[in-house]
Amino acid sequence: MKKIAIMTAGGDCTGLNAAIKSVVLTAIENNVEVLGIIDGYKGFVEGLYRPLNAEDVADIEELGGTVLGSSNKECPFYYLVDKQNMKYEDKTDEGIKKLKEQGVEGLIVIGGDGTLDSARVIHERGLPTVGIPKTIDNDMMASMPTIGFDTAVETVTQAISRVRTTAYSHRRVITVEIMGRTSGFLTLYSGVASSADVILLPEKDYDLDKVCERIEKVTKYKRYAIVAISEAAKEIGKKESISKVLNDSFDKVRYGGAAEKLAKQIEEKTGIECRHVVLGHVQRGGRPSSSDILLGLQLGNYAFELLYSGDAGYIVGMNSDKLVKMEFPHERVPRVLDLKTNPLVRTARAMGICFGD
Ligand code: F6P
What we know:
It contains eleven helices and 15 strands. The chain is an alpha/beta fold. The chain folds into two domains: 3-147 and 290-327, Rossmann fold (3-Layer(aba) Sandwich), CATH 3.40.50; 153-281 and 338-350, Rossmann fold, CATH 3.40.50.460. The protein has a seven-stranded mixed beta sheet, with helices on both faces. A four-stranded parallel beta sheet has the order 9-10-8-13, with helices on both faces. A hairpin with a 7-residue loop joins strand 11 and strand 12. The longest helix has 22 residues, at 149-170. The termini are far apart. The structure holds 6-O-phosphono-beta-D-fructofuranose. Residues 11, 72, 112, 135-137, 179-181, 231, 254-255, 284 line the site of 6-O-phosphono-beta-D-fructofuranose. 6-O-phosphono-beta-D-fructofuranose (F6P) binds at residues 11, 72, 112, 135-137, 179-181, 231, 254-255, 284.
C-alpha cells in the first residue's frame, strides 16, 4: 500500500485533528502517502483533496474542529445533485473512481454513525475502508467514549458552573439546553458533574409536576436551581422541540427550544423567576482535553495499522482501555443510555437529583 486517503465528516468535535495527525505520522513511518479529503463527503464526491505531510499536521492536535473541514449534510449514496428539484443520485462509485485515479488504495473515515454507514458502503464497493468513531453525543457502539465526548462534558460542566453563580445571586431557576440529539450521555455526565438539580434526558419523558416539586424544594434552601435538559428531551405526552428541518440534509431534524419552553412552564407553575441558556455549538469547540487527544492519537494509529495490514472493513474503538474493532454494522445501532442500569444515574438518584420521574 503506497497511498491512502483520510476524511472527516459529520458534526465536528475536538480530537479529530489528533486522529488525523496520528494517521499521517504513522503512514509516513511506513512510507505511505496520505491524501486529505476536504469537507467530508462533498470533497469525496467532487474530488477535493490536499496532500498531508508531516509539516501539515505539526501541532494540529491542540486545535478543535478539523483541519480537513467537515459537513453533516451529504451522503455519497444519496447525494443531492439538483437542489431546486431535490434530486438525489448515488455518487459512491464516482467518488471511489476519483480516489483510485489518484493512486489511493485505502480510506480512513472519521465520523458519526451516519458517516460510518456511508464508509461501509464505500468499503463494500471496493475501496478498503476503516472507520473511526467521533461524536460529542457518545452514542456509538464502537467506542466508549467516542472522540470529542470528554471535552464536551468538560465544556458543559464549566458552563453550568458559570450559570450557577448568577442563578444564585438572583434567586432564579436556569434551564440549560444541552446537545446530543436523541442521546442523553452528554447531559447526564455534565449534569451530574455540575450538580444540576434536575436532569432531563431524551431516554425518559418527564413529568412537569415532578420537575417543579424538586425545584420548589431545592430553591427553599439554596436560593436557586439548575435544570440540565437535553435538546431532544420531552414532557410526557408531548413532542420534542424542533428548531429546523433541513431538506438538503441526510439527517433532516435539528432540535432546539426545549430549555426555553421549560423555563416558561416552570415560571408559570412555581412563580419562581426563570431564565434559559442554550449552549449550542460552544459544546463542540475549544481546545481538546488530553483524553480526547490521546484517544484520537490511538484510534488514528490503530485504524492505519488495520488498513495497512489488509484488515479493513472495521470501525475501531476504545473500550475499558483496550483497542477494539467491530465490523461496519448494516444498520445504525446506537449505544443506548439505559437509565435502569447506568451507574451514574444510580449515584445521581441516590443524591436526590430529579430525572423528572
Ligand atoms: O451530532 C452532533 C451534534 O452536535 C448534535 O449534538 C446536535 O444536535 C447536532 O450535531 C447539531 O447539528 P448542526 O451542527 O447541523 O446544527
